[in-house]
């Protein structure tokens, strides 16, 4: 798990450069995904809690063996370690 790169905003695994967001100059940003970061700015102006609530359905869909509550608890432990929410 340590060598998996995660979006530093939503924690989505960044498995391939096609998922990277873009900097202001159009170059790829290796910290944030294309859903969170475009042209050097965050797409969604939200709090960490709002981001977690937004991400729960996506995490449950990707991991059907966990409940919404388990996903929420996991994200509340993990998100404070991400660059955007430190």
Write the layout of secondary structure elements.
Layout: E1 20-22, E2 28-33, E3 37-38, E4 41-42, H1 48-62, H2 68-78
Antiparallel strand pairs: 1-2, 3-4
Helix pairs in contact: 1-2
What does this structure look like?
The protein is of the alpha+beta class and about 90 residues long. The protein has one domain (about 15-85). The protein has 2 helices and 4 strands; from the N terminus they run E-E-E-E-H-H. Strand 1 and strand 2 form a beta hairpin. Helix 1 packs across helix 2.
- Provide the β-strand percentage band: 15-25%
Order the strands across the largest sheet as they lie in space. Answer: 1-2
- Pairing-aware structural class of the strands and helices? alpha+beta
Q: How many E strands?
A: 4
Number of helices: 2
Mean pLDDT: 95
- What's the overall geometry? globular
Distance between the termini: 20 Å
Q: Output the helix-strand order.
A: EEEEHH
Radius of gyration (Å): 13 Å
Task: Count the domains.
Answer: 1
Profile the largest sheet.
Answer: 2 strands, antiparallel
Q: Report the helical percentage.
A: 25-40%
Low-confidence stretches: none
Task: Name a few traits of the molecule.
globular, two-stranded antiparallel sheet, alpha+beta, 86 residues, two-stranded antiparallel ribbon, 30% helix
Summarize the structure.
The protein has 86 residues and is α+β, with helices and mostly antiparallel strands.
């Amino acid at each position: 798990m340590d060598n998996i790169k995660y979006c530093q905003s939503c924690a989505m695994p960044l498995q391939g450069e096609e998922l990277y967001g873009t900097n202001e100059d159009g170059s790829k940003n290796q910290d944030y995904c294309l859903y969170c970061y475009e042209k050097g700015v965050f797409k969604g102006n939200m709090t960490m809690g709002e981001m977690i609530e937004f991400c729960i359905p996506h995490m449950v869909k990707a991991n059907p063996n966990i409940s919404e509550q388990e996903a929420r608890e996991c994200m509340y432990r993990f998100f404070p370690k991400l660059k955007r929410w430190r």
